[in-house]
Write a structure and sequence with these properties.
- The protein is mainly alpha-helical.
- Helix 5 packs antiparallel against helix 6, helix 10 packs across helix 11 and helix 20 packs parallel to helix 22.
- It has 22 helices and six strands.
- Strand 3 and strand 4 form a beta hairpin.
- The protein is elongated and about 85 Å long.
């Protein structure tokens, strides 16, 4: 929440609402005992999820996809039939799956006799569902039949997947490229793009990665058929086209093998958002809020955050709450709305939202103040390694207003938050070391934490640091300097 007002329970002047969402395995018993969680490793940026989706096939593991076992061919890939055609219920995905799985003798043709001029009848292994009857012309049927026959006989895609899983990337690239040229599998293009982007097997080539991502991203579109239904329980699932859009956005945003291009990154996020991929909508909202890669408009940003939040994307729910809490040009502050969005995100365990709800309850912002209830939310956020929440929990034990005073527990929670870079926790921990509260007195440690809190932005007078340093022995000064300025030592 950026820089906010003083928290009533803290003995220091300012709390920073740091919303670091980490997920270490933390024991509930430690919370009950008042112990801080073990220190979590620093958060790392994860590569894009490796997922595969194609038409009716929802395939997370590429080894599950065998073209020979899937004779149903989607007519939208033919030269024109059913592509961007008027709505027909027989083209709906549910209908197509039903026809494929339960009514194989429905509107089908054989890829050996697409015009109905051979003796083979419906139900043969090489039949494919053509869709809405009369919308396909003779040329379309022939095109679809030929491609279906190639797909049914092709083994190069399976070979490419097997080589990829065996980490034989040269063979994987060779087989996947053949498969793509034969049938046009978007999964094959995505797998090649990943190999080139991630330098698997020393095959790194950002330009080729972009090329293959664009083969998927710029292929003919059927927006109605490609819309994503975001599933909060499985956020890694997205369509092949949405994955290509998001990957291209990240490439241009981070400058992976190309110059950073905010406008191009924003353009690809817009495309992914158009497919209802909620994480991309959240990123696009941030671009509108900050004016990244284009025009700045807080009202548009809020509308996008709310759209993604209503689709179940927890990060967007939290961001909508932040916008209502802080207000912006065209978006007046609304604490009631902010609390509603924060609570929604908190129910899914979002650490920043848990802290935000706690703080509003603690200070009585938009709701009647309830410090005891606030502590429940603070503890939940603290167990998720939110440093501001850990600092807040520590102040409860330090003050003893709501829970019994326990300086030992307070010091441990201040230490947990300080080690994650929370400036107020650093200052508080220094104060406890200097007075011997909750443990041994240690002026050298007090000096180090006080200096670190100043470096992190806490308003520590130079005179205070100077006075505390004067009380250290020469050996203690040397140790402190080695920590604060390791290169100088």
């Amino acid at each position: 929440m950026d820089k906010l007002a003083t928290l009533r329970h803290t003995p220091v002047a300012l709390l920073l609402a740091l919303a670091l969402h980490q997920s270490p395995a933390l024991a509930q018993a430690a919370l009950a005992a008042g112990q801080p969680p073990a220190q979590a490793a620093p958060a790392t940026v994860q590569p894009p999820a490796q997922v595969f989706v194609s038409g009716a096939r929802l395939v997370v593991d590429p080894s599950q996809f065998n073209p020979a076992d899937s004779p149903v061919y989607n007519p939208q890939l033919a030269s024109s039939c059913n592509f961007m055609a008027a709505y027909d219920w027989r083209n709906d995905e549910v209908t197509r799956r039903y026809m494929r799985d339960f009514a194989p003798t429905g509107d089908t043709v054989s890829d050996r006799s697409p015009y109905g001029d051979a003796s083979t009848g419906p139900g043969d292994s090489d039949d494919f569902f053509i869709g809405a009857g009369g919308t396909c012309g003779k040329g379309d049927r022939g095109f679809a039949a030929g491609l279906n026959y190639i797909a049914r006989k092709d083994k190069t895609f399976g070979a490419g997947v097997a080589a990829f899983q065996a980490k034989d990337y040269p063979t994987a690239l060779a087989q996947l490229e053949i498969a793509y040229k034969k049938v046009g599998y978007p999964e094959a293009a995505l797998m090649m793009a990943r190999i080139y982007l991630n330098n698997f097997g020393g095959k790194g080539d950002p330009a080729k990665a972009i090329y293959w991502y664009k083969q998927v991203a710029e292929a003919r579109r059927n927006p109605r058929a490609e819309l994503v239904v975001y599933d909060p329980a499985h956020p890694e699932i997205l369509s092949t086209r949405a994955e290509a859009y998001v990957s291209l956005a990240q490439i241009y945003m981070l400058g992976l093998g190309v110059a950073k291009d905010p406008a191009e990154a924003r353009r690809w996020y817009e495309h992914a958002s158009d497919l209802n991929y909620s994480p991309a909508t959240d990123m696009l909202a941030g671009a509108w809020l900050k004016g990244y890669g284009g025009r700045k408009d807080a009202k548009t940003a809020l509308a996008l955050y709310k759209k993604a939040g209503e689709e179940g994307y927890v990060t967007a729910q939290y961001n909508a709450g932040r916008m209502y809490y802080l207000g912006a040009e065209g978006v007046p502050q609304d604490l009631k709305a902010a609390g509603a969005w924060f609570v929604t995100a908190a129910r899914s365990g979002h650490a920043g939202a848990l802290y935000a709800v706690a703080r509003m309850l603690d200070l009585g912002e938009g709701v009647k103040a309830d410090p005891a209830k606030a502590l429940v939310y603070y503890k939940e956020a603290a167990l998720k390694s939110n440093p501001a929440a850990q600092n807040a929990v520590a102040t409860y034990f330090y003050r003893g207003d709501v829970v019994p005073k326990d300086l030992n527990i307070a010091r441990k929670w201040f230490d947990a938050a300080a080690r994650k870079g929370e400036p107020d926790a650093m200052f508080n921990l220094a104060a406890m070391y200097s007075r011997g509260e909750g443990g041994d007195k240690n002026l050298a440690s007090a000096y180090v934490w006080l200096a670190l809190s100043k470096q992190a932005g806490h308003a520590v007078p130079d005179s205070t640091l100077t006075e505390l340093r004067s009380r250290l022995s020469e050996q203690e000064k040397a140790k402190a300097d080695a920590i604060l300025r390791p290169s100088a030592s």
